[in-house]
């Protein structure tokens, strides 16, 4: 659905040249929810803005639904943008206009007939639970309601793609959950392809099918969210996930024995494999840290344990045979 091929974007300033995107290749499938994460300044905003050409790349191509966005003239670009909606961290609503006028705005720009606009706006406001707010102004709404208006406006022209620029970063956790549920629902019901940039790992864990990690304008890691989050390969991914976790430092644990990280996925998450195998092999274990959660709906758990007594190597082999991913950790090496 969306393909970035060798996309490069440079900025020049008095302080010197800066490469915000460095030869980025990325493929996002139709109907996917795709997350882009990275530290501040990694190039996330620049990347998402090349998809609707709010940023024009210096090199490379951006293909959306078979069309080269980078090659379009002004008229072609306007047309293409109807297929690509966007929402923002601070909503970017027109504060002097009512909610219904905000949602009507892109349809008016398109010159649609008045009766059609009225009907479409009513439909969108009802769909997003905003009907009772139609005559209000943005300042009279909460952050979550404002983001719903942003989504209604972004959907007005019936896009295939929705770009979300830190769409939940200004919202409290409960409202974030509400907006993520809504995006999830729109993805399923409309088949909408969603690209979201965020610094909130929890947002990716909750809704993204796949994720890309950016560092210094380069994609350093990409894959299915569960694969990347349970087994992060790049140091920046590892660091961002560790900050998001409880910050537990295994090296500080005052225990001897064989330390291991165990990863359970799918149904095995709920099976008592560890205690069964410990009993059968005669090892003892202490749990140093643990987390059981869902990543994009898939149950998964990760435990950091120390095996003492018995033969830890046998216990780890048995766990592996039973579908648990086992990573032995050399304490000194951490
Ligand atoms: N208009 C601009 N002019 C000059 N440099 C820019 C401009 N926009 C972005 N940059 C630089 O490009 C790099 C990438 O910026 P970008 O905003 O894409 O990163 P980001 O990952 O979205 O960061 P943040 O999470 O802080 O928003 C940064 O070094 C930034 O300073």
TrEMBL record:
Residues 2-241 form the ABC transporter domain. Keywords: Amino-acid transport, ATP-binding, Cell membrane, Membrane, Nucleotide-binding, Translocase, Transport. It comes from the Bacteria. GO terms for molecular function: ATP binding. Signal peptide: none annotated. PROSITE patterns: ABC_TRANSPORTER_1, ABC_TRANSPORTER_2. The keyword ATP-binding applies. InterPro entries: AAA+_ATPase, ABC_transporter-like_ATP-bd, ABC_transporter-like_CS, ACT-like_dom_sf, MetN_ABC, MetN_ABC_transporter-like, NIL_domain, P-loop_NTPase. This is Methionine ABC transporter ATP-binding protein. The lineage of its organism: Bacteria, Pseudomonadati, Pseudomonadota, Alphaproteobacteria, Caulobacterales.
